[in-house]
Amino acid sequence: MASAETAAEHERILREIESTDTNCIGPTLRSVYDGQEHGLFMEKLEGRIRNHDREIEKMCNHHFQGFVDSITELLKVRGEAQKLKGQVTETNQKLQSNGKELLTTMDELRQCRLQQRNIATTIDKLTHCLPVLEMYSKLQEQMRSKRYYPALRTLEQLEESCLPQAGSYRFCSIMAENISRLRTHIRDVSMSDLKDFLESIRKHSDKIGETAMKQAQVQIARDNAVTSQQHSAGGRRIRNEACLDRTGSNPFTEQDSGILDVEDEEADEVSGAQDLVDFSPVYRCLHIYSVLGARDTFENYYRKQRRKQARLVLQPHSNMHETLEGYRRYFNQIVGFFVVEDHILHTTQGLVNRAYVEELWELALSKTIAALRTHSSYCTDPDLILDLKNLIVLFADTLQGYGFPVNQLFDMLLEMRDQYGEILLKKWNQSFRQILDQDNYSPIPVATPEEYQRITGQFPFQDPELDNMPLPKKLPFSEFVPKVYSQLKEFIYACLKYSEDLHLSSTEIDDMIRKSTNLLLTRTLSHCLQYATKKKNVGLAELVQIIINTTHLEQSCHYLEEFISNITNVPPDTINATKLYGTSTFKDARHAAEEEIYTNLNQKIDQFLQLADYDWTAAQGGGQASDYLSDLIAFLCSTFAVFTHLPGKVAQTACMSACKHLSTSLLQLLLESDVRQVSMGALQQFNVDVKECERFARAGPVPGFQGDTLLLAFIDLRQLLDLFTQWDWSTYLADYGRPTCKYLRVNPHTALALLEKMKDTSRKNNMFAQFRKNERDKQKLIDTVVKQLRNLIASNQA
User: Fold this and answer.
1) What's the CA dihedral at 405, 411, 414, 419 to 10 degrees?
2) What is the 3-state secondary structure (H, E, C) of 55-109?
3) What residues pair up with 474 in beta bridges, in sequence order?
């Protein structure tokens, strides 16, 4: 049983060896050697080999004849093959000999084809590279000629289109590496040009502004000429319309350096302010930064630098107020700055906008107005103020022509009008004082008709009676009347000059002139006239002439009203029209002069009274008036004779005032505390002097008094002296307090004081005669009267 299995296994292994690849026979043989029947297997293997050998031998015997035949044929074929080989070798040699030239030609053809292909490739590459090189050469030429914006465009085209098409070449790499460096160089150079431009316009802003203001002045002159022609034709246009026309179409921005169209046919007469500036650096730098994608950076830088320049321009010089040129340079710089900004605004898109320019203008307006207010306050010359006003008007009109609002400037001019008025008042105050100081205060003598016409031409004086008088003759007023009247007209002209070109209506101008003239009358001229009447050493003749002069000036006030109405074309009867205060001014001055006359007369009277030398203890009075009083009466007579040209009321008032003061002063002289004793003889002399005064009053030194009105000035003194000289105490004491009392004007206090002085005199002079009966009776009577007066005073007080 076991041998059968072994034999089957050996058979399987042999089949596996026969059918298996020799590379995989190892495991099969290993299974043989691992078993116990190795010898048996070897026997079977040898038997299998012998069987295969027998089969091979059978097969070879079967095919041997065919093999022999094949060998025989092969031997025959070898001979033929040798012969063929020889022929082939011969043919090959011939072919090789004949093909050498062909191979050489083929090599040459191959080289030619290779060269041709290389040339075509080279041409193709050069076709792509030449535009790059040409573009780069163009770029270098643009850089050398400083045409940076075209160079930047060329650089952009080179980078975006030419270099990508050229391929990867070393020179392309170098060009690509240089692109950023060239952009940086272009940006830096354009920024340098911009800085140079900013510095240039900063230096030349004065010249730019001067040119712009000259151009505006020419435009204003043309507008005024057109307006005048329209006025002559019957039409009248308000100047504001001309300003609005200039605002609507900017004549200056249209006359730039060729960027905008020139529409003004007459622009050649005055070159545009922008012609002085080359704006190409700004445009070039703007375009360059726009291409570089840094437009915001450029705009911020430009605006920041211009703001700094604006602050420098708006900073005035410390001595600007000293001359008009200082103001002119200041205005020229401001105008030049905004002319440039306005041009940039209208010729670029977005570099500056309207809001930015308006912001700068608001800043400039506030600082300019503040500077003008500060520096103009130092000015004391009205001519400089007037020139400054005209310069400010031209400055405002120029900028208004560029579309900038200038209402605040005109408002400031209206504020300066008050300052101008104050300066005029100070100047005219000096003129009035000089006229008053140089006047001789005497009527003007006229010797020729020409002289008479000259004076009446200066001052509106009309007197038919004087006109008919033969030459030579005298005008009633002195030189200061026509001079003051001429100065009043000059002041009105000065006020009118300031109001011109301020865009004011005729009514506003008329109101301004009238108010300023009223200030001149009520403040300046009034103070000057007061100064003339109050100054030292002014005589009564001068005061009389001042009254006459102010009377004529008062009468001329309505001519001043007409003069103002004529130059302002505003009727004087217009509703709410300001009236001149000249009448009240001259009236007040005349009253002041009258009061000064009264005061001077009283002072003169006091000076004469200081010369009085009464012997208050004299036993008997003289028969003649005192010397001092005679001199005083002679002075009053001569003085009142000068008052013939005064209004009657003034002369009467002066005479009455002098008499009252004389009466009061005489009474005070009698009652003064230094006079301790008064005798009856002294009273008699005093009574003679008073009679002399009454004789003067009764003579009527000034016409116009009714009856004995002037005597009433001495009635208090007359009744007192009559009471003492007549010793009529019984009547006085009995009738005291009654309206019909004879001594109604005698005050019991005054009578008691004088009686006390007489009582002391009686006691002193009669101390050794007291035993005489008459003297004792007189003393007793005085004591009785004193006692009764004291009782009367006490009863009245109770």
Assistant:
1) -110
2) HHHHHHHHHHHHHHHHHHHHHHHHHHHHHHHHHHHHHHHHHHHHHHHHHHHHHHH
3) 445
Contact 526, 546 (CB under 8 A): no
Sequence letter at residue 587: K
Span 113-153, pLDDT tens digits: 999 999 988 888 777 777 777 777 776 787 777 777 777 77
What whole-number distance in Å separates Cα of residue 766 and Cα of residue 496? Answer: 85
| CA angle, 319 then 324 then 327, to 5° | 65
Contact 201, 340 (CB under 8 A): yes
Contact 754, 678 (CB under 8 A): yes
Query: Do residues 755 and 680 make contact, with C-beta atoms less than 8 angstroms apart?
Result: no
Q: DSSP letters of 455-497? A: HHHHS----HHHHTSPSSEEESS-THHHHHHHHHHHHHHHHHH
Identify the pLDDT of residue 200: 82
Q: Which two tokens stand for residue 648?
A: 């009657």
SS3 445: strand
Distance CA(598)–CA(590), nearest Å, equals 12
Neighbours of 519 (CB within 10 A): 18
The token pair that represents 791 in the structure block: 């009782």
DSSP 386-403: HHHHHHHHHHHHHHHHTT
Note whether 344 and 277 are within 8 A (CB): no
What is the SS3 assignment for 444?
strand
CB 671 within 8 A of CB 754: yes
Are the beta carbons of 339 and 274 closer than 8 angstroms? Answer: yes
Rounded Cα distance, 217 and 225, in Å: 12
Q: 9 — phi, psi (to 5°)?
A: -65, -45
- What integer pLDDT is reported at residue 247 of this predicted model? 35
Question: Which among 581, 432, 406 has a CA at the least distance from the CA of 502?
Answer: 406
The answer to whether residues 493 and 456 touch, using CB atoms and an 8 Å cutoff, is no
Give every CB contact of residue 316 below 8 A, 6+ residues apart in sequence. Answer: 326, 330, 371, 375
CA dihedral 374, 378, 382, 388 (to 10 degrees): -40
Kindly tell me if the per-residue pLDDT of 246 is higher than 60.
no
Cβ neighbours of 84 (radius 10 Å): 12
Task: Convert 203-253 into a string of H (helix), E (strand) and C (coil).
Answer: HHHHHHHHHHHHHHHHHHHHHHHHHHHHHHCCCCCCHHHHHHHHHHCCCCC
How far, in Å, CA of 304 to CA of 351, rounded? Answer: 12
Please tell me the distance from the alpha carbon of residue 373 to that of residue 376, in angstroms, as a whole number: 5
Residue 716 host element (H or E)? helix 715-726
What would the pLDDT profile of 262-318 be if each residue is shown by its tens digit? 333 333 444 566 677 778 787 878 877 777 778 888 888 888 888 888 888 888 888
Please state, in angstroms and as integers, the Cα–Cα distance from residue 640 to each residue in 378, 432, 630, 637, 695, following that order. 51, 29, 15, 5, 15
| pLDDT score recorded for residue 574 | 67
The answer, yes or no, to whether residue 599 has pLDDT greater than 60, is yes
How many residues appear in the chain? Answer: 798
**Rounded distance between C-alpha atoms, residue 93 and residue 91, angstroms:** 5
What pLDDT was estimated at residue 122?
Answer: 82
If you search the block for the tokens 């060269």, which residue do you land on? Answer: 115
Characterize 562-584 residue by residue with b for buried, 16 or more Cβ atoms within 10 angstroms of its Cβ, and e for exposed: ebbbebbebeeeeeebeebbbbb
Closest CA to 411 of 518, 503, 334, 326: 503
Q: What is the DSSP letter of 161?
A: I
Residue 763: partners with Cβ closer than 8 Å, 6 or more residues away: 779
Task: Give CA–CA dist 458/485, Å, rounded.
Answer: 8
Q: What is the CB-side half-sphere exposure of residue 347 using CA atoms within 13 A?
A: 25
Whole-angstrom distance, CA of residue 270 vs CA of residue 156: 43
- Provide the pLDDT for residue 773: 58
**Taking the chain, what is the end-to-end CA distance rounded to the nearest angstrom?**
197
